[in-house]
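User: I'm preparing a small set of examples for a lab meeting where we compare how different chains pack in three dimensions. I only have the primary sequence for this one, and I'd like the structure in token form so I can line it up with the others. Please keep the answer compact; I'll paste it straight into my notes.
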Amino acid sequence: MKSLRDGSVVLLDVRPENEYGFGHLPGAVNIPLRQLEQRLSELPRNHEIVAYCRGPYCVLSFEAVAALRECGFKVRRFDQGFSEWKAAGLPIESAARA
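Assistant: Understood. Below is the structure token output for the 98-residue chain.
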């Protein structure tokens, strides 16, 4: 996705930290849904945000999109999730373990 590479879109993983640590979409920023309101300042207002979570039936990204839109962000939901991305054999990143 060109817009991810050129930095015009922020990929937002709203799953809990431990899930993000085990694997996430390349370049994704992790702000768990329960922390979103307190961490809004970490998100750029001049970029589109694409939120994702566990998959198409997970409500975390739906809730994140609604909350961010209410705060004036340009945001949409990635209609798949981490599970579908990984199952498709697409690249993933994981946090370094100490």
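A couple of notes for your slides: The mean pLDDT is 91. The radius of gyration is 13 Å.

User: Perfect, thanks.
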